[in-house]
Amino acid sequence: MKAIRRFTVRPVLPDPLRPLGDLARNLRWSWHAGTRDLFRSVDPGRWAASGGDPVRLLGGVPPARLAELAGDRDFLDRLGAAADDLHAYMTGDRWYQAQTDRLPAAVAYFSPEFGITAALPQYSGGLGILAGDHLKAASDLGVPLVGVGLLYRHGYFRQSLSRDGWQQEHYPVLDPHELPLDQLREPDGAPAQVALALPGDRSLRARIWLAQVGRVPLLLLDSDVEENDLGERGVTDRLYGGGSEHRLLQEMLLGIGGVRAVRAYCRLTGHAEPEVFHTNEGHAGFLGLERIAELCAGGLDFDSALEAVRAGTVFTTHTPVPAGIDRFDRELVTRHFGPHAELPDMEVDRVLRLGMETYPGGEPNLFNMAVMGLRLAQRANGVSLLHGEVSREMFSGLWPGFDPEEVPITSVTNGVHAPTWVAPEVFRLGARQIGARRAEEALGVGDSDRWDSVADIPDQDIWELRRSLRELLVTEVRERLRASWRQRGAATAELGWIDGVLDPDVLTIGFARRVPSYKRLTLMLRDRDRLMDLLLHPERPVQIVVAGKAHPADDGGKRLVQELVRFADDPRVRHRIVFLPDYGMAMAQKLYPGCDIWLNNPLRPLEACGTSGMKAALNGCLNLSVRDGWWDEWFQPDFGWAIPTADGAGTDPDRRDAIEAAALYDLLEQRVAPCFYERGESGLPDRWIEMVRRTLSLLGPKVLAGRMVREYVERLYAPAARAHRAMDPDAARELAGWKARVRGAWHGVTVDHVETSATTATAELGTTLALRVRVGLGGLGPDDVEVQAVSGRVDEEDRITDAAVVPLKPAGAPDREGRRVYEGPLSLDRTGPFGYTVRILPSHPLLASGAELGLVAVPSEELAEAAGLLMR
């Protein structure tokens, strides 16, 4: 019979065990091995059955067992130590508190998904896992972050396979009362809520759930409340589901409702108000509109409020292709803002102007969330060096007149939270070498001296560790494969072959990620005969573990999954290649450590960063990857292999796949497998062990989320906080007025004449020329602009590369026509073809970049031909 109503009955813990509840409600347990060990000892069987979820565990422990533990002195001592350790972690000074600069009092971090733990399934892939790792690393470093997201009642989908290998989706309902969450409440005990106005005098209400991620509060908004109509209750139904209007409402709730939730949290708890707002991808971009509305309500005009908001906002883009960005029809956005809708006092045209693609190549009727994010943030970044370059090119239309390399988008390469992803066995080996406390610090903050100690670990210990991890993976794979086949309808009698799947002594390759077409799940199947030869080689076989989810609406991705599954079902190779459905955090934490090789073969440069290979590397797994994302930045032959790419403009996609697949097979046959199987005098694979050692010692400190968050603090959060403090109402009004004046007068800014002291077209290295420029500033003065000489080596088309920029200084008063002369030195500091030009940029102390306004004046073509100079 089916229940007509459902309740969540929480256990009543005996007084001596009350600290267990506090430990369970703080998600630090998800990356703190000692706390997990304590919960496991409560009831090992139920711990395993709960999937390692302390809240579910405590909900199922019989009262008799709780009473027994309440009288167990040894257990109570361990419980007390764990509670004391958590208290010290939550209250003690950490890296952030030791900094001497005046850092932000708080930072609000908005993301549409957060991958904290499998017990809180609010993520779909890399963006969410990255956001979760960002919060955890901020907690470890003591950064006063407040996370903001949505609570999806179905989370992301669960994946299973049909008998013929077709992906099937399931959406289990999540009850917040059964998750490690608490409701934010008003002083009278009522649930705290935020509300958005919708067209037709409707409203969208959401309550606020709190997940405590170590020291970091994570606020999750949930629209499934009784005050909402049925349609509004479903706004937070599932991650990345629904049509355009559904997505727009989700993103309005995340951005606008998220700011209101932060204000409520700070009011109710006394937490410091954020000085910096970090928008993790464009989904949360509407947060800037709400902050503008707050300032306008306080008396600022729109333009001044925009400047104040931009000063304290950081925007991170994660996509390398325009198709990966949320875009909405102009009419849809218009309907949801202005009179009779949200932000009624704000002109809809002002809202639209922030997101419309009003640049060459843009779609003029589309509202682009990433474009709005960039226009609302004074600081922006991509997530690897290569992705920063791609982003500057992709968004260069927003800064006309500037070369892509000068577009003000920097990069902070992603990192991963080592305590979450490093296997306990790996940690224990490190702790044995340098001590548990120093090992924890090495994983958290990063310290190359501590990572250098890997050099002292004996080869035998490293090889035994790798084999034991491979053995654990084999056991895990067999259990999951058996469960998958049972779901596919197989009888137990059919599945005896699974006991022979994989071998703990065979070179093991892992490939697990989302399944969009650009990640090329099936590239390995390009030449099936060659792949079979690799899998079944009599002396140097390989085995492959594959996992991944295609988006529910992506039938092309589902066909790729089915193609891979059907190959893996072949009785000839099914003991050597497996596909595991329902890839998620719990599976990933077993998969990364057990693999010897982590395979990644995206279409370059479509992988913005790709952090799965980082997690594998922290466990001594070697990377075999196309040079894309982070691997392009940090690859060295010492610790992995680069798959050559055929990304020339004239190569069609099919031929490119064929070339790169052949290169992959060659690497596996000729270099990877021989390195794994060859034995030195000691009987061990010396070369392989040395590559593992170098992976840990050289890559280890780089791939840490602790390094990433420190970079965000030093390069983005701290400057944004300084800009926020400087942008008081008077400064905001002054800057907004100045920008309006400069834009209005810029048509009169000209470079009229350029001359140098050079007499020939050749000169010796080290020569310094005198440069003299006459400019017209229209209605602007010298304090409003900077006149620059830009020089450097030139290519065949006379484009300056590797440019050096030198400001020129005004010389004397303006002439009768108002034109001014600027002078300065031009150093010929490199040999070969050399060139220069002159330009004028707006200049103001509160600008973060000279390109910020997208305004530049350069010599006319006629003037350039007359005055241009090339030294050859």
UniProtKB/TrEMBL annotation:
Cofactor(s) named in the record: pyridoxal 5'-phosphate
Annotated catalysed reactions: [(1->4)-alpha-D-glucosyl](n) + phosphate = [(1->4)-alpha-D-glucosyl](n-1) + alpha-D-glucose 1-phosphate
Keyword Glycosyltransferase recorded: yes
Domain DUF3417 intervals: 13-120
Keyword presence, 4Fe-4S: no
PROSITE patterns: PHOSPHORYLASE
Keywords: Allosteric enzyme, Carbohydrate metabolism, Glycosyltransferase, Pyridoxal phosphate, Transferase
EC number(s) given by UniProt: 2.4.1.1
Pfam families for this protein: DUF3417, Phosphorylase
Cross-referenced InterPro entries: Agluc_phsphrylas, Glyco_trans_35, Glycogen/Maltodextrin_Phosph, Glycogen_phosphorylase_DUF3417, Pyridoxal_P_attach_site
Superkingdom of the source species: Bacteria
Similarity comment: family membership: Belongs to the glycogen phosphorylase family.
Described function: Phosphorylase is an important allosteric enzyme in carbohydrate metabolism. Enzymes from different sources differ in their regulatory mechanisms and in their natural substrates. However, all known phosphorylases share catalytic and structural properties.
Name recorded for this polypeptide: glycogen phosphorylase
